[in-house]
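Thread title: Can someone regenerate the structure for this chain?

I was given the following input by a collaborator and told the matching structure tokens would be attached. They weren't. Posting the sequence so someone can regenerate them.
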Amino acid sequence: MSHNFEKNWTTKNNGYPLNDEEVQRYVSVVPSARQYRHSLTPFYCFIHFGMNTATGREWGAGTETAMDFTVKSIKPAQWVKCIKAAGAQGIILTCKHHDGFCLWPTKYSNFSVKFSTFTGDIVKMVADECREQRLFFGVYLSPWDMHEKTYGTEAYNDYFCNQLTELLTNYGEIREVWFDGAKGANARAFEYDWERYYKLIRELQPNANIAICGPDIRWVGNEGGKTRDSEFSVVPASLCLAETVSKHSQHAEGDAAKLKKITSTDEDLGSRAVLEKNTDLCWYPAEVDVSIRKGWFWSKASNATVKSGKKLFKLYLDSVGKNCSFLLNVPPTDKGVIHRKDAKALKDLGRRIEEMKAFPVIVEKLGELTPNDGCIDFDFDSQKKLKYVIIKEDIRKSQRVEAFDIYIKKANGKFKKAASETVIGSCRIIPLKKKKCVGARLVIRQSRSTPVISEIGFYE
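Best answer:
Regenerated them for you:
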């Protein structure tokens, strides 16, 4: 059987130009410093906690009072410990959800923990514990606010920016600011001043990425962990428009279930066929957001829906392993702790992630390839049972690889194709199910200019 090894990026490049003016336009698009740093910590957790935790709702009703927040205490050290056990690298806290209740003693509203029976600043407690246990900290601030009377008027933009300023100045370094586009169908028609919000964040937290309704990290398009076969980071700049994200977001509380079932909003966001039709391009990597249980806030009824460590690991492989970041929601209970079922699943997830790289066979940093690197061979010191291949591009040189194959070398010297994939990006994880082999071969079939592979690893 012919494997056509001679047809690779150094020769045919699948019939596409390797280097021309258009290719150079694509590879000139690279991540900002903040986006690159983000790629190094691709797994982190959402903490949905607030008024809905106490009332058993998902979106709130808009009629709650501060005294309806009946949670007496929280254990942020336990939260962080559980999330670290999963192998996650940060936490994003829902400082204010759609109901408008604030987890910090804001100066601009009496609808906050300050006016409840809870003693303390929840945002500070979580931020401080993240620093103590070396996780990064991010904030979620819902643009839609059911409670605030100025919502729907220009005065609300002032209110929102005042609260955003509090969060960005009182709690240390903020690594990600997360905005969603959810808005009830009956909410007052109102245009958020996104550019003003972005400018404020850049001024107060210049190293923070602005996610989803923002220019730095894009929503993958659903809440079920569904990713594309080819997840591009170089995409048309029009995808950054917050209004477009809002259109595809929730407009009713029941929409959450629908967003778990649908596939990506568009399957092809960054192929050459798409990019050639767009003058303005940007670096806009995808983030996968999914909850560990049914619903985003804890409820007793959802205790039976906690995803297993095995299921979470599959989501990890389909997100981090496919050039996305993974934002896993872990909602604490009304007792202020992460439930034992969630904690157990998180620990199992962490074990599986550690085991994935526990037995390296070969790990090499290749760098920029040469015209002799159409096929790159890796010889093992004995027969191995490969379970994973992990490949990373140096995305500081853009995302270049468009198609590649992995072959395993059998004891008789013959090669057998083990995987045929498309893009790589910041990370591509390929499960191989204990393939017996004495070596392996990487064949990059198609690339935008010369491939730059920061690392490739083979693991038993």
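The two ends are 27 Å apart (CA to CA).
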